[in-house]
Design goal:
Number of strands: 14
Oligomer: single chain
Helix content: 25-40%
Strand content: 25-35%
Mean pLDDT: 86
Radius of gyration: 32 Å
Number of helices: 6
Largest sheet: 6 strands, mixed
Length: 286
Amino acid sequence: MEIDTFLTVHKETPTRGFRAGKKSIIILVILLVVLVVSTLVLLLPAFYIKEVKMEGFSVISPDELLASSGIKIGDHLFSNLGGSIVSLFTFRYGNIEEELAIKYPYVQSIKIQAQFPSVIKVTVKERLKIGYLEVPDGFAVIDKEGYVVEMSGNSVPTGVPLMEGLPVRSAMLGEKLDLSDDQGFSSSLTIFGAILAADTNITDDTGFRLMPCIKSIRYVGNNTTYMMLQLPESNRNLSVKIGSLKEISDDMTWLRYAIATNTFNSEEINMSDSVLDMTGDQYIMR
């Protein structure tokens, strides 16, 4: 028994030594590969920024945003990676994305990603402003989700309609409106959506768009909303009363066509005292 035991130990000892040596070689090879790869990443020109591609910019200045990001031509592609494990493995600049989303209220989403060789791609989705409101500090411009994208003191915003009848408790730049009741806001958004749809699905040859004519929209409660429009041909104002929103798409399609074909430009109509009532089955100028 003692001889058998000695022979067994004698035969296994070289095998263990071989395995230990093999593991050491594997580890050494892995370390060598990591060292070579790290050296290549640090030294090869393909890993240094030569170009920054900017996409999706309309309101925000791409040059200004790039300067705010701290990203510069000649930087290493990996020098600013971070934010989360997902960001690291997808070569995203997560920390910079978060900072820019806070700094620029018009940023709805932003993606900054390293692309090989030598390229950084910045893709932005901007918020689309739909209207403005009067607030204690002046005027607040909002997007369709109710986020404040601009604040101004005495200057009235242009290019978007005034939104009235909304019970605003607070409005802060870059944050969502704090409303005590969002019924009026929801109704206004539904009407704006129908107007944009009517402008998009134009079936005539006029090419006329209704949205630029909207001067203000005011929710008065009881599912009733008033719109003030400026007629393009005469610059006269037209007041429109809207009730139920069940047929709002058809209503706005008809209104766009009626204005495009100068239906309301007759001198016989006293626009200052008249209201186009669209609350019933028939449209009536009262």
